[in-house]
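Re-running Amino acid permease to confirm reproducibility after the cluster update. Everything else is unchanged from the original entry.
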Amino acid sequence: MKLSSSLLRAKSIESLQAEADRPGGFRRVLGVWQLTGIGLGGLIGVGIFVLTGVVAATQAGPGVSLSFLIAGVASAAAALSYAEFAGMIPVAGSAYTYAYAVLGELAAWIIGWDLLLEYALVVAVVAIGWSAYLQALLAQFGLALPEWASGAPGTGSGRVIDLFAALGALGVAGLLTLRIELGARFNAAMVIVKIAAALLVIVAGIPYVRVENWTPFMPFGFSGVAQGAAVVFFAVFGYDTLTTAAEEARAPQRDVPRAVLLSLVVALTLYIAMSLVLTGIVRYDTLDNPAPVATAFASLGLPWVAFVVSLAAVAGIASVMLAFLLACARIWFAMSRDGLLPAWFAKLHPRFHTPYRPTLIAGALTALVAALYPIKEVAELVNIGTLSAFVVICSAIIVLRRTRPDVRRSFRAPFVPFTPLVGVGFSIWLLSRLPTVAWERFAIWMAIGLVIYFLYGRRRSRLAGETKELWYGR
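Result of re-run:
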């Protein structure tokens, strides 16, 4: 077989649909609300409790609400494309699997390898942030870790390891190896806590809103609002994590598209409402601190609201770890099931029917990174993968509408090709704004991945075996 042919070989949509229905696979136990909870778990976290205030203070002013609206429209373009794919191809793997069906094996490998790094690093970054919030919360009760266990080397004198960050990542990995519904229930509980906290902020803050605090509404001009949109964009994706659990949904072709759109709408509504309230109760230029929501309410003489927000932040960030580690493990599983990585990783737990091997390994690796590296160094690589996946998915929708108009779609993205082109354009613009060091490290990771693919995956791929059978059977 020619090299070019092997790189472009694709899995048919029909074969992928058949994979989803074969016996002995994942347990189909997740309903639309549990799937929505996974999406909200990935969407609502540090952004709603920190990013809102920081962007308002440094870039957008009260116009941060417009920043969220702009970012939300761009993210919605990608969400609609994800929803269409999820209705057609209800299997584990999300963007990796969709790329395999439309663009071929090499593109699928690049996206899959890319997302393995991104999702794992998101877990590590969030674990570090979760540790900081937890330590701050315990400090209110006079409790503290020893200095050596309170942070990674280089983050403070005497610090050796971020113990809470490591334990958080390992704890979430352990939970995800159990039955998926247990992890989903835990996630749902955490999501309810942080949504309740966001509603508390909105309801408790409305009486203290002063219209004069919204003037000027765009102190840095519209360019500041646009720059703010580039930053808060990273707070309005995360719904893609729920598409990786499509094989565990009871009615995936109906419920996964609904959950994608519902989770984005709920999260975006809360972000906009909270940004308006927060910039209405205090001046925007007072919000540039690690806990702007809590600080704002403490200045109003409402310390109990500040405490509840801090508590909810700890719970909310834990659910973000769960959503992204779940996604990482299932993409790893899907790539191994396809033969691109060793099949040993594609074995489900005999009792719990979860991909426990990639879950535990990814959990251990993210725990190690979170324990030993400062958050800034880890965060630099986080965004490239997701934005690249958005470009691929939005482009693939346009291609598939032309090449396979006959495939049944339980959901159709509206205004194609305009809608996915918005997603492509915005994602490329954001990719162009990432720092050079992030691209350099990303290039190293991709080079390692391509070596693995050409030495192992291309020959061991299940599609390679099927092609050989067809060739020799002529």
